[in-house]
Amino acid sequence: MTALGIGPEARRRLSAPRIAEIVADELRRQIIDGELADGDLLPRQELLVEQFNVSLVSLREALRILETEGLVSVRRGNRGGAVVHAPAKASAAYMLGLLLQSDYVQLGDLGMALLELEPTCAALAARRPDRAETLVPELKAINDSMAANLDDGGRFTEIGREFHNQLVHGCGNHTMIAVVGSLETLWSSHEQQWAEQTEAEGTYPSLNKRRAALNTHVKLTELIEAGDVDRARRLASRHLADTQTYVLSGDPNQRILALSPQALSRPHR
After folding, report:
1. pTM of the model
2. On the CB side of 121, how many CA atoms lie within 13 Å of its CA?
């Protein structure tokens, strides 16, 4: 790790918080560029103080900044240290969820955004020249798993959300993957809660409706495989509109609730 080389004159002009931001910027860059890998343990604080030529106060403030961003987690005690975490979709979804929750945004607003964006991802996926080797096998495997879990509503929904997440991930546009993927993660947490609640109440959609949803996934996969951009976009739009009515039927004005990155990334069963 290269020292920042903050000289004594510059140090006199800079406050400790400003120095901490510079240190955090450098560590953040190393994490984002992959110089520090996910799961790496940062050197001990006394070594970092020496390498960056800063005070312990500034270093600890820098680590607090990164911890707030979810890029490190600081463990206390004799076996403590700072563990590196690569940027994760769940963390982005959590921060976005906090923003929407603080603005009292309703779940239907999130659903409308996905109605506009996810069909575009389906169209982009159908244009990918390598879709037959990359995306299509993944979608087919998910469809097979859905078919094997038709009798388990909660699990069926969870696997179905994997289909939508994979569709977005397979669109090939990294910006869409990051943005729409975060929205998908937020929606998935609400849909899973709906599935578990309706299954417990005995009101989960019937077996025929589950088969219809699966058949739509299969047909959408076939359209993507065939490169039929327009029909893939239209079918994705109709399917989303249909399935969202179930989740929104209980309380169409329900507020978006942000779940922690740990809860968002944890399997429901």
Report:
1. 0.73
2. 30
